[in-house]
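Progress against Task 2.4 (sequence-to-structure conversion) is shown through the following example record, which the project officer requested during the mid-term review.
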Amino acid sequence: MLPQNASTAAAPRASAGVKSARRVIEILELFDQQQRALTLTQLSDKLGYPPSSTLALLKSLQMLEYIAYDPGGKTYAPTLRVAMLGDWVRGQVLGNGAIVTLMADLQVETDANVMLAIQNDLRTQYVHTVQSRKLLRYYIQPGLQRSICRSAAGLALLAQQSPVHIRKLLKRIATRGDHPQDLVPEGELLDTLQQVARQGYAYSDQITEGIGTVAIALPVQPGQMPMALGVASASGKIQPHAEAIAATMHRLVAERLIPNQNRSG
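Structure tokens generated for the chain above:
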């Protein structure tokens, strides 16, 4: 989790990848975060890029019709083409809106942060979040990645996989070596996943100091990627009530999500 006032430039970024490609994504992410048109100076300052490099990227995006320039206000903003790019992904992940509604209801019932996570290679990634109005110090940024072996959402996802897949995952984490803190001893992880499977939820407070998370795996429709639903708040508030929170999550899934899935099937 990140402090709410943290800038995009302060968020840790993987060193791998082409710099210009990464910067294009960071520009689009900044627009999503700010939700307003921005000047060249604002973009350059917030992202920490040289103005000349920022302008070159904006001009390229403008030529491709992903960015529009307003000469009156001297501002840039994404076009509708950016929004249309991910429509099919949003439909696959969030379906007909039932998951978004479920998450909003869960936030009201728990008064905590709610997140939806998927497995992204060797990590988990938040693809949608609903923020608690009372946890202003802990803003969960969509797109944020966490350890799949230590986060509650990651454990909920891994508990649905076979021991063979878990062993292969651990070998890949060890071989790649870019997130050594993500590596957990095989026996310890398999024991934890057995416990998660038995109790029907995962709990973890290993990611952010003072914050605990309860997560469950969502039922998977054909053609849909596996997803985990999580609830995060102060560990002192979450841990003693983890079982009850998980029961609330399972109830809402049964009431709001499964009937919709049955109708669509």
